[in-house]
Structures are given as C-alpha cells and as structure tokens.
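Q: Convert this sequence to structure tokens.
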Amino acid sequence: MHVVILGASGRLGQAVVQTWTNGSQCLPYSSAAGVLGVSSDLITAVTRNPAHVHAIQGVEWAVLDPMDRSSHHALFERADIVIDACNQRYDDWSQYPEMIRVTLEALENTGARYVYIDNIYLYGIPPRDQLVTETVPRRPISQKGAIRFAIETQLVMQMQQGRPIVIVRFPDFYNIVTDSLPRYLRWFGPLDQPHQFIDTSDAARAIRLIAEDDGAYQQIWHVAGDEPITGQTMQGMVQELWGVKVPCRIFGPRFISLLGIINPLARGLKETQYLWTTPVILNTEKFASRYHGHFVIHSHQQVLHAILQARMKDRE
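A:
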C-alpha cells in the first residue's frame, strides 16, 4: 500500500509519518494498548519547504506547492491513501479553501482514499454542558469556523457521491498550552473552565486506524484525549510531576488583542478565543465503540510526564 502524507513536516504530520514507520508511537512511560505494527507500506511525505526534508528510513519525500494540481495528481495516481495534515498560517486562511479544491481535483480519477484532518471551529458555541456529536448543527461564529464548515460541506457532498473520503476531527493539541513548559503553563481563559485536548501521538494513531479501515470512510469521526481538564488541575499535575512551583500565565482577550498588533499567531487566535470560555467538548462514543480494544489514549499525567522528560533531556 502507498500512503501519501500532506503536510508531513508539521507537528501532526511528523507524528503521522512516525506512526507508520515506527509503529504505535506510544509515549514513553506508557502502557497504552492498541499497538500498531511497523508498516511495510510505501510512505511519501509531502512538504512545501525543501528545508524540512530529512532522511527517514522507509520514507520518500516530495517537495510540492500546495496549489500545484498536476504534480499532486501524478503523485495521487500512485497512492492508495492520502492523509491531509497540511497547516495554514494561523493569521491567514484566505487560501485554504482553494488549496482543498486543488487537492480534491488532483484526487479525481485516482482511486485514492482521502483522510481530511479537521478541528472544532465549525461548531461555534454549542448548548452549555452538551457533548458535541458528529451530527449536531454547525453554527460557526468565526471566519475560521465558516471556512471549515464550507470545506466540510464540500467534502460531505463528495462523500454522498460515493467518493472515499473521511473526516477526522480533533480538539486542541496539548502544545498550545505546554510549549512554554517548564517555565510556565499557558492558558487562554478562566483557569476553572475545562478544555479538551489530544496528544499528537494519539491523534496520529487514530488517523492510521481510521485510514486503514475501509468501513470508516464516507463518515465523520470525533477523537479526543483524556477527560476535559481545567487550567488549575493541569497546573497542579505539572507541579507534582516537576517537583517545583510552575506558574500559569493567562493570555486573556485584552492581552491577545494587544499582542496581535505585532504577533501574527495572536491575531489568528483572537477570533477563536471564545472556545476557552464556552468550550466545545467532543463526544467520542462513535469512535470508542468501533475501535474498542484497539485504541487507548494516554492520560494527562502520561502526556505531561513525557513533555517534561523531553524538556529535561533538551537541557542536558
């Protein structure tokens, strides 16, 4: 089988590549079940930046402009599965719909299955205390949410026409709050408000499970990590694991607005900051029911332990 991974040099894309080449990608110090074996598949990792190409055993690289339809079509003609983990500049999604259109056109008449990685922006603000299933109405309130909804609508139409497409939807990855560790923990709303996360290694394992499952296509799947957690609870876990006091810095709306004057990432974050005061919590029962016994996520403690151990190793 030939697997093409778009956006392979991004954080999630790298994890997806490693899941196919190294097996389960379980974190250190973990006893997570559902081990995926090392694959003998041909893996093509696609990036737009030649500086990101690096040797990985069993992986061939392709450097392609995301808008280059003909080159992508030639690559997809040899593919069985195409996984779309492409990132966008967080402050500018103006080219995102066109990029997806080019990708879908390049997939035409190829027979390749397409795995689209999505997030929660299209849901807007759900009823309070309601878990969000794959079928709830979409009510985006941000530009990014409207873009995601338009893309989903396009993909669902193609699913209904029989095309082998699947949408895998995740909450935030831990790195949005943990990249600053161990100096401090970042948070973007009230510390007592729960937020849902998933580790990139867990997300990558879920992507592979779904991508290799013929029965998963023409559907939408929610996948999330451990139970929603407040900033206070996560700060306490970090301090217990690290053994010293670790401050938590709150990047509230006013601070993000000011920071956005000079920081493109903060500008992009401003319109979705409502998710830290009115969180979207995904219902993952559909995924859990189908893959019970084949997939176990890492706990918050396991993820944070692995992050802190990696930081300690970097200091050596």
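The CA atoms of residues 23 and 246 lie 34 Å apart.
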